[in-house]
Amino acid sequence: MSTIEALDEASDYFDYIIDLLDKLEKLGPLPGILLPFIEAFLPFLPLFVFVMANSVAYGLLKGFLYSWIGSSVGSIAIFFLIRKFHKTRLVTKIMQNKQVIHITSWVERHGFGPLFILLCFPFSPSSIINIVAGLSKVSKQQFILAVLLGKSVMIFSIAYIGTSILEFAKNPTKTIIVTGCILVFWIFGKFLEKKLLRKSKRKS
């Protein structure tokens, strides 16, 4: 498939989602939240299109909020499902994979930082990140914090960038704003992470 054909297909899919949201208008924010939530379980679905469609259908602020809620809750749900069923045969087999062991141990050593950075980027494999975090010994607080902050940056970036990546690259102001948001949220997240760790150590 050529680049032009791929763009046309994405545009058609975007129009279809917009039409679907219009038809489901009576359900309020539910469709806008459910689409990103479902994407967390079915990663082949285009989150980028869902976020852009929400921004058009609900407005930038509400579209961002609904996309952020749906995507964040979906990621957290997968994390807890993996934690709950980690003793099943399939999950145990995955945990014994050498590559998975290497990745999970790396995530365990670094905690919030790498999870946050990975979740900030729109095209990062978030479904794999959710599973790996669930298999690791990363605390629930660290993961939830990374998801809520990382997803907020990622969803904001998609909504703010718009449908044209080329336009984003040509506009240094947008680049500076998104980069600044990533930096601020990373610092804020590291501060909260240290606070949570100190609190857990005092309790133990």
Description:
- By secondary structure, this protein is mainly α.
- It has one domain (3-203).
- It is 83% helix and 0% strand.
- It has 11 helices and no strands.
- It has helices spanning 3-23, 30-41, 47-58, 60-84, 89-95, 98-110, 112-120, 126-135, 140-161, 165-170, 172-203.
- Helix 4 (60-84) packs parallel to helix 8, helix 7 (112-120) runs parallel beside helix 9 (140-161) and helix 9 packs antiparallel against helix 11.
- Residues 1-7 have low confidence and may be disordered.
Concise summary:
By secondary structure, the chain is mainly alpha-helical. It has eleven helices and no strands.
Characteristics:
single chain, 204 residues, mainly alpha, 11 helices, disordered N terminus
Topology, pairings included?
Blueprint lengths: L2 H21 L6 H12 L5 H12 L1 H25 L4 H7 L2 H13 L1 H9 L5 H10 L4 H22 L3 H6 L1 H32 L1
H and E string: HHHHHHHHHHH
Q: Number of DSSP strands?
A: 0
Residue-averaged pLDDT: 76
Q: Biggest sheet, in brief?
A: none
SS summary, helix count: 11
Number of domains: 1
Based on secondary structure, the structural category is: mainly alpha
Gap from first CA to last CA = 57 Å
- Gyration radius over CA: 18 Å
Low-confidence parts lasting 5 or more residues at pLDDT below 50?
Answer: 1-7
Helix-residue proportion: over 70%
